[in-house]
Amino acid sequence: MKILIDAFGGDNSPQEIIAGTIDALEQKAGFTAVLIGKQDVIESQLKNYKYDQSRVEILNADDVITCEEEPTVAIRRKPNSSICVGFKELKENPDAKAFVSAGSTGAVLVGATLKLGRIKGVNRPALCPIMPTLIDGKNVLLLDAGANADCKSINLCQFALMGSAFAKTLGVENPKVALLSNGTEDEKGNALNHEVFPMLKEMKEINFVGNCEGREILSGEYDVIVTDGFSGNVAIKSLEGAIKAMFKILKESIYATTKGKIGGLFLKDTFKGIREKMDYNKKGGALFLGVEKTVVKAHGSSKRDAFMNSVLQAVTYAELGLSEKVKENILKFTETQAE
Amino acid sequence: MKILIDAFGGDNSPQEIIAGTIDALEQKAGFTAVLIGKQDVIESQLKNYKYDQSRVEILNADDVITCEEEPTVAIRRKPNSSICVGFKELKENPDAKAFVSAGSTGAVLVGATLKLGRIKGVNRPALCPIMPTLIDGKNVLLLDAGANADCKSINLCQFALMGSAFAKTLGVENPKVALLSNGTEDEKGNALNHEVFPMLKEMKEINFVGNCEGREILSGEYDVIVTDGFSGNVAIKSLEGAIKAMFKILKESIYATTKGKIGGLFLKDTFKGIREKMDYNKKGGALFLGVEKTVVKAHGSSKRDAFMNSVLQAVTYAELGLSEKVKENILKFTETQAE
User: Which of A180, A212, A215 best probes binding to B when mutated, by most B CB atoms within 10 angstroms?
Assistant: First the structure.
């Protein structure tokens, strides 16, 4: 099984990307890493590491798409970019099972949709991060986290199906699916929510449990939370911002007094643990669900560890047959709809 | 100046509401508190306190609107509820300058709109909490936080004007107004954002600085953040949820080890300070901007301290002439539009 790596995506590429890939190879057997990008640069970087050479390949791509470029334009104009070469390979090579990139989110999404292709029956693929919750070991999937700023009700129904398939793939039985809203009562919501609520309620393929507020996202009460890509993005970034703010205030307050500094020393490991628990970006990337194969979007600021985790995620999802399971769920639903 | 108090609104009414009101009277001179609700209950509660009797009045209201009731129906069917009696008095009595309630948000919003009335030129009043930021002493206003789940571009322009007037009333010179979006670049956003962005840019009455992401809400970079009531509600509740989650994890992690417990003892005051800083619900209520007089919506779970702060807020805003300043800003804008 081949995992394709965009060696030239992200703020710390190619160094941290290549280092993280090498680490992933050490962590897990059973896959070959295909590093995509400028061959000479990759080759000279690889000289810094000891690794099993039979498990690393290079696929040359001379161009790079930056975050400043308009994604649709960039994907069309740069067929030799690491992202375009990656998706072409992913589509054409049956051994290639997943693509991992820390590059421009927009370009990865557009590239996946245009070059790799959507699963039949999916109108809009969605970005789906895996977030930690207050319940130990339990995660929550939120989609769409930002691929589609404007959504229709049918998109949200498909997000529910895809998220549910993803949660099941991760081992959750009968995942609880909620609709993000401005209140928990059934009648809460905006026009889109009012339209989609009864549709979700009717869907036999999912376990829809009703509305969920922003303050319950991390509660561990839900397995999958669906929403449009605008609200999803606002929610996730608000959560991130609040957690970041809390750490900043905590640090400043601790350093402000001697008593604080002493307490801080005792709690150093505790704080480190909490940071690791809450910083889901370090745990791996977000999945792009609804396209033909596994696509993992690692955080743009990923360093070695975070990128390693994203690669390991990609391997795991490919092994578990994530995209096949999403496909099955969508197919079952479209068949019911056609009846 | 009279400040009207819904004595029968909120989870802890009437006890904590009355206690908080008495505390507010002690904290600040220059106003009379009018407690609205069942006269006999209020009278018997008041017996528990020592206070300046010349500064407390009771306005009888036999009914109570609960959070379970549909707001529009409840406001129409219960003219003798504390909320309806309060808004009638606020409209008719020139001495009455503000209304404070910890009751049903929906009922307060509908009551304010129907019984008190909108400012001319405001299509949709908005709920506007004042939130702490990472910069000490600096707050951010976010509106609409949930009064209008579906908004048009003109609503957001009016929110910008009202928020700007509010920030100026609080002493901010040339407040920075941002549009909540799914990215900071100008071209980011959903259909509503794409429509409103150039309109905000054109408005000479405000200092529009562009898009702002969820993760920047608490940064202190912005004074006013405008958005539709659905996204605003999602953002605020996500922030609340993340902060609550952080405290929970912090507490659990500290109690998990002996080292943690020792560190926790040293940091007890620090944690208390952070909690007070970040828990904006305890600092006071959210303003309902765009109606004829000052309306403060205290958090439903307000206890004595939080409610006292909401009453003090109402007094301050009434003294500063908040609703008059909002009116002026709206008027100036509608005149420009008419030219």
Answer: A215
Structure tokens that stand for A226 in this block = 């669906």
Per the document, the length of chain B is: 339
The sign of the CA dihedral A1, A173, A152, A286 is negative
CA distance B78 to B81: 5
Mean pLDDT lowest among A91-95, B69-73, B237-241, B264-268: B264-268
pLDDT at B252: 86
Is the confidence at residue B338, as pLDDT, over 80? Answer: no
ipTM value: 0.92
Pick among A267, A268, A280 to test the B interface (most B CBs inside 10 A):
A267
Alpha helices (H) along B49-190 = 71-77, 82-92, 105-111, 153-169
Q: Which of residues 194-223 of B touch A (CB under 8 A)?
A: 213-219
Question: Is residue A129 within 8 angstroms of chain B, CB to CB?
Answer: no
Residue-level pLDDT at B84? 97
Instruction: Give the count of beta carbons closer than 10 Å to the beta carbon of residue A124.
Output: 20
Residues of chain A with pLDDT under 70: 339
Cross-chain Cβ contact A231/B230 below 8 Å: yes
Cβ atoms of B16 and B311 closer than 8 Å: no
The residue in chain B having the minimum alpha-carbon distance to the alpha carbon of residue A219 is B245
Task: Report the distance separating Cα A217 and Cα A207, nearest Å.
Answer: 17
- Residue B313's nearest CA partner among B14, B21, B71 is B21
Rounded Cα–Cα distance for residues A194 and A213 (Å): 15
- Tell me the C-alpha distance between B236 and B238, whole Å: 5
**CA–CA gap between residue B130 and residue B128 (Å, rounded):** 7
B241 and A215 Cβ atoms separated by less than 8 Å: yes
Q: Does A338 touch chain B (CB under 8 A)?
A: no
C-beta separation of B106 from B186 below 8 A: no
Q: What letter does residue B177 receive in the DSSP assignment? A: E
Question: What SS3 state is found at A89?
Answer: helix
